[in-house]
Each structure stands twice: as C-alpha cells, then as structure tokens.
C-alpha cells in the first residue's frame, strides 16, 4: 500500500490512547467500527470538554436570575466583658454610663453572623439576553465539536477500508503465487526433460521476478500487521476482543458523483464550521445587547440579617444604640443600581463589536476556503472515477494477454519472458485497480465530508 495510506493510519492512531490484549476475533461493519472508535477517542473526549464548558456557562448565566448575590460572613474571637460603677443601671442600660470600662478579668467567646442577599426584579432583559448569548455559544461549541468529529470520521473511514484493501492484496498475491509456482514447475520439467528451447537467460529473469515478488509479499505482510495493530489500538476494549472488517471485498462505492454545484450548495448549508461561525455571530450580537442593557439602571430587592452574641456583653434595650458584640437586626427593601463605569462598559461594547465584525469576516473566509476544498475534492473524485474505469479496462486486456501467453507457452510457442511480462502486468493492474478503488472511495468520502454530507450515506449506498 502507498505511503499516503500509512500516513493516514498513523494520523488516526494518534487520536487514541492505550492498548489491549487480544482474545476473540469479531467481524464488524463500518458503523459499528465508527461508533467504537469514536467512543475510545481521546481526541473526541478532549473536544467534548469545550462543549461541557459552554453548557456550564449557560447554567452560570441562568443562576443570575435567582438570588445571584448571597453572602454569609462570620467573625469569632475572645473579648473582655464590661463593668459599671453605677448600681442604678441595669445591664441593658449600660450605654447610659459614660464611664463604662472593660473588665479584663472576664473573657468570653465572640460570635457574629452577617447574611446579605440581592434579587434582581427588573433589569431590562439583560439577564435573559446573557442566557440567550450563552445558549448560542454552547450551540456554536457543539457545531465546532461536530466539525472535529467529521475530520476524525474521515480518517476512520480510510482506516476501515485500508484493512479491506490489505485483505484484497493478500488474496491477489496468493493467486499470483500459484501462477509463479506453476511457471516454476514448468521450467523444472523442461530442465528435467532437457528441452533445448529453454533459454537460461529467461530463467534468470524469472528468478529475479521471484525475488522481487517475495519483497512485495513481505511489504504487504508488514502493512497488514500495521493495519491490524492500528485496529486493535483504536478499538481497544476491556474484553480484549480483536475486530476485523465485515466487508471482505473492496468495490467502488455505489454512488454517482453529482454536479459540482450540488456539493457547493450542500457545503454552504451543512458544514458545521459555517454553522458554528453563524451561531457565534448571533451569540456576539446577543451579548452586545446584554451589555447595553446592563448599562441601564436596574431594580433589585435586597435584604440583610446581622446576629452577634457575646455572653459577657449585655444587649442594650435602646434601638438607637447597637452593641456590635450582642445584637440581632435585619431589614429588606428595594434598591436601584446603576453602573457608573461608563468608559469600561463602552470599551467592552466596542470590543464585542470588533469581534462581531471578525465573525462576519471569518464566515466569508470560511466560505472561500470551503468552496476551494469542495472544488479540489470534486476534481480528485472525478479523476479517481476515471482511473478506476480505465484501469479496469486495462486489466481485462491484460488477462487476455496472459491467457494468450500461457497458451503459447504450453504449446511450446511462447517464451518465458513474455509470460513473465504478462503475469507482472496483470498483477500490477490488479493491485493498481484495488488501490485506485480505495482512492476513489476515499476521495468520494472527502468530497462528501467537504460538502457536509454524512459518510454513512456512502456505506448505505
């Protein structure tokens, strides 16, 4: 197989982490393979965290609706008691003694709790807009995740069918080995019979071909081992099962290539990257609206409760006199809050407007890039289709040639050189056809991916 296939396998391998020991071998279809690989992908788990963070921001924005600001402060310590020389004063009247002093021989534990809360009543819809902006941000994050997932699915598509390609090449080499053995037996028989028509130079060429063939077999064997190890790595599971493709023969995908404008329009409608940018632009617009509303005065309901207790400090009976070490008080009421950091708010709004323009430009740039990607993939898929068709026709011709050379050789009319050339060309075209079928399917998968069309539609077809 080509270096390009090996590179795609290595790239797919890097998206996963850890290896398991094989026990059972199971055959699975592409959809099962895809789901298992995605579940094991460390890359997808990492990308999913961006979605989780964005969804958490929704919860944070929603939390601003119900008592967004509640605070509890506590204070604890040791304080001395108090003493008065006036016998006519009760303990709750000590505030009347101007000569009241600390009693350093009387210590007690001081405890104080302060609870305060604020509930928005009317904020001109600023909170709702913030929630909506966060929701749109989470939606954009999901589309970005889908884009990363589509990239990995494309690599997994190549990985699945590279195994099928390896199986096909193994079968072709086994067939070729039978023909090589047949020619070798014929040469040995001619030697034993002392056939004078046997040209030793042709025998040398056959021996060279055998050596080259053995090298090719070794390459295919190593490639197959690499594909199997990659599969085991990607599909690791606790049971240690080993999987093989349910598809055993590599055929062209039964799907016609549509006109290029079909894929261009599908890309503009379906690509998750464009959806992410579009929704991100809406999120920025909504966030700007929220910032503007936050600059308006808001109506809030606020309340507080203060409690302090120190056993050696008596609570005073006069409501205008508070003993901070022994009290219980509270209250609530409406308040109007107005942010006065106008310059900071204006700068934030301007910054968000710049981001809004950036999102618009990013959409235009993404559309340009996607259009070029679709056109390039369409060109490659169309060319791959032609290559498959022409290689298939060439293979039919090579089979006729090989049959003719085999008949001529059997009747003593042909030469070993011509037979070897025919065998080499047939094997070369068989391998080339399977390789080009793989490339055609891969290029069609890339075309569908660039158009935002799910790869599963190819498998269904």
TrEMBL record:
Cited InterPro entries: OMP_efflux (IPR003423), TolC-like (IPR051906)
Entry keyword annotation includes Coiled coil: yes
Cellular-component GO terms for this entry: cell outer membrane; efflux pump complex
Protein name per the record: TolC family protein
Location(s), subcellular: Cell outer membrane
Family as reported in the entry's similarity comment: Belongs to the outer membrane factor (OMF) (TC 1.B.17) family.
Coiled coil start-end: 166-230
Signal peptide residue numbers: 1-22
GO MF annotations, alphabetized: efflux transmembrane transporter activity; porin activity
Alphabetized UniProt keyword annotations: Cell outer membrane, Coiled coil, Membrane, Signal, Transmembrane, Transmembrane beta strand, Transport
């Amino acid at each position: 197989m080509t270096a390009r296939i090996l590179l795609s396998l290595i790239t797919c391998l890097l998206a996963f982490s850890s290896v398991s020991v094989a026990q059972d071998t199971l055959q699975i279809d592409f959809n099962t393979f895809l789901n298992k690989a995605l579940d094991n992908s460390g890359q997808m788990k990492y990308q999913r965290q961006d979605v989780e963070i964005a969804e958490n921001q929704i919860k944070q924005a929603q939390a601003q609706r119900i008592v967004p600001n509640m605070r509890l402060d506590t204070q604890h310590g040791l304080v001395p008691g108090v003493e008065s020389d006036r016998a006519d004063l009760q303990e709750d009247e000590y505030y009347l003694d101007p000569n009241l002093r600390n009693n350093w021989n009387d210590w007690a534990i001081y405890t104080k709790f302060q609870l305060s809360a604020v509930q928005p009543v009317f904020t001109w819809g600023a909170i709702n807009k913030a929630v909506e902006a966060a929701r749109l941000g989470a939606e954009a994050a999901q589309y970005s995740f889908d884009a990363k997932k589509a990239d990995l699915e494309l690599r997994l598509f190549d990985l699945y069918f590279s195994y099928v390609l390896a199986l096909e090449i193994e079968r072709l080499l086994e067939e070729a080995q039978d023909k090589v053995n047949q020619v070798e037996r014929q040469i040995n028989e001619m030697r034993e019979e002392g056939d004078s028509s046997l040209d030793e130079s042709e025998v040398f060429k056959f021996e060279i071909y055998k050596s080259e063939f053995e090298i090719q077999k070794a390459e295919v064997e190593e490639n197959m081992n690499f594909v199997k190890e990659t599969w085991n790595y990607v599909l690791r599971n606790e049971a240690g099962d080993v999987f093989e493709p349910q598809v055993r023969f590599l055929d062209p995908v039964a799907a016609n290539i549509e006109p290029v404008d079909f894929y261009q329009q599908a890309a503009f409608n379906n690509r998750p990257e464009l959806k992410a940018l579009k929704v991100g632009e809406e999120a920025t617009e909504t966030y700007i609206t929220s910032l503007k509303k936050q600059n308006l005065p808001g109506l809030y309901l606020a309340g507080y409760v203060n409690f302090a207790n120190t056993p050696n400090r008596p609570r005073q009976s006069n409501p205008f006199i508070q003993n901070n070490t022994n009290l219980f008080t509270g209250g609530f009421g409406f308040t109007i809050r107005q942010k006065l950091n106008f310059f900071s708010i204006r700068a934030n709004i301007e910054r968000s407007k710049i981001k809004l323009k950036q999102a618009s430009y990013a959409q235009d740039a993404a559309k340009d890039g996607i259009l070029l990607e679709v056109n390039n993939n369409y060109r490659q898929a169309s060319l791959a289709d032609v290559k498959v068709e022409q290689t298939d026709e060439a293979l039919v011709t090579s089979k006729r040639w090989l049959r003719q050379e085999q008949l001529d050789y059997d009747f003593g009319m042909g030469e070993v050189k011509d037979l070897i050339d025919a065998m080499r060309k047939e094997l070369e075209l068989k391998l080339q056809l399977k390789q080009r079928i793989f490339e055609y399917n891969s290029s069609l998968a890339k075309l569908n991916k660039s158009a935002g069309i799910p790869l599963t539609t190819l498998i269904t077809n």
